[in-house]
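Lecture notes, continued. The same structure-token format from the folding unit now serves as the input rather than the output. Read the line below as a description of shape only.
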């Protein structure tokens, strides 16, 4: 596994080496330039003494690990990194794995956030294809051709969205096995974004998280904002797993990045145990809303002569609608704005391969959801009649 040179030399300087030896002997060390005011009686008494923990405060990581283990994930607090969001997690991992102009593979269709973050990190993205034939599937042959192609030696990771947004497709078991085989062969890491994993709509048998994968270096991303349906709760995490030696090296370098950023406030960390208590209730409410709206949507689209169809979605909060490709996507959105006061995200926002797609959220209250769907159907019929 190749890591970026952004994390500098892994050799300890003489001072750091002496400090490490002293600590290993059990000797106490005091710093002559200690600028932590809380250790000198100068901080806010209510906040106590501050001790920097780059991966996030240990009690918070332990609480999160316990919660995740209770949900069936094999997670240890020592392999968790707490940070402000999964977006920040992407940024850290691109720093860890990529030098400027290195490449990560990302799914298309897919959410444009990844390409935007990569651009900020001076990292290039290369799309790999998802295809639809009644359900979504990865083009494994395409991924293999990219890894074996002329730029394959610059590819450092593959990003998997499990389930994907906006397609709502999980990574299927046979796809997972072949992806792991390719990653091991070519020495690249997996970055698995699983923030929507616990929102199944029409799930495939054998769906599985990548969190805890041991065969290849894997960074699984998740966060409370989706679990709680609370975007303002900015708390994400990275779970590192894989072969022991690669995990050790990755975490050593990731610790350096985390130490530079120290992103997580102790005030937020202290709230994690209480927030975790709300997850089951909140995620159940959201999951039920999405499933109920999906059932209503299917009923509406089954009306005789309906010109709009639904692409199969296996999980998440969104679905893709297909309408006649003779209608330009911009034309449909403009018509919705002018006649019904609705806007939306057309397929080309997500790099769909052709015209005629519209993303639809399953989150609105039932009455509003039905109004929105009927506005789409009426708009499509009106444009077809022009």
């Amino acid at each position: 596994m190749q890591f970026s040179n952004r994390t500098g030399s892994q050799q300890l300087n003489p001072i750091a080496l002496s400090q490490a030896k002293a600590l290993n002997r059990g000797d106490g060390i005091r710093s002559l330039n200690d600028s932590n005011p809380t250790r000198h009686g100068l901080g806010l008494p209510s906040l106590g003494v501050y001790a920097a923990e780059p991966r996030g405060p240990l009690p918070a990581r332990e609480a999160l690990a316990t919660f995740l283990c209770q949900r069936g994930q094999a997670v240890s607090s020592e392999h968790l990194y707490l940070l402000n969001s999964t977006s920040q997690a992407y940024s850290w991992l691109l720093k860890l794995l990529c030098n400027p102009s290195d490449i990560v593979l990302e799914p298309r269709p897919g959410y444009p956030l990844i390409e935007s973050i990569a651009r900020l990190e001076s990292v290039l993205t290369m799309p790999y294809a998802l295809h639809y034939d009644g359900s979504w599937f990865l083009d494994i042959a395409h991924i293999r051709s990219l890894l074996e192609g002329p730029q394959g030696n610059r590819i450092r990771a593959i990003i998997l969205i499990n389930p994907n947004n906006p397609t709502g497709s999980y990574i299927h078991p046979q796809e997972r096995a072949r992806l792991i085989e390719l990653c091991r062969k070519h020495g690249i890491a997996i970055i698995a974004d699983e923030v929507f994993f616990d929102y199944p709509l029409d799930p495939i048998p054998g769906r599985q998280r990548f969190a805890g994968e041991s065969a290849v270096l894997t960074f699984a991303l998740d966060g409370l904002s989706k679990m709680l349906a609370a975007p303002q709760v900015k708390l994400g995490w990275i779970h590192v797993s894989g072969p022991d030696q690669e995990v050790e090296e990755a975490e050593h370098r990731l610790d350096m990045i985390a130490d530079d950023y120290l992103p997580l406030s102790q005030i937020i960390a202290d709230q994690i145990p209480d927030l975790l208590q709300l997850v089951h209730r909140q995620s159940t409410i959201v999951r039920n809303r999405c499933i109920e709206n999906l059932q209503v949507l299917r009923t509406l689209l089954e009306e005789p002569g309906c010109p709009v169809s639904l692409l199969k979605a296996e999980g998440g909060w969104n679905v893709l609608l297909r309408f006649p490709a003779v209608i330009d996507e911009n034309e449909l959105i403009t018509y919705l704005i002018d006649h019904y006061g609705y806007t939306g995200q057309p397929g080309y926002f997500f790099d769909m391969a052709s015209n005629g797609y519209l993303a639809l959220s399953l989150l609105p209250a039932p009455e509003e959801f039905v109004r929105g769907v009927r506005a789409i159907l009426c708009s499509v019929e009106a444009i077809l009649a022009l």
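Point for the exam: The two ends are 58 Å apart (CA to CA).
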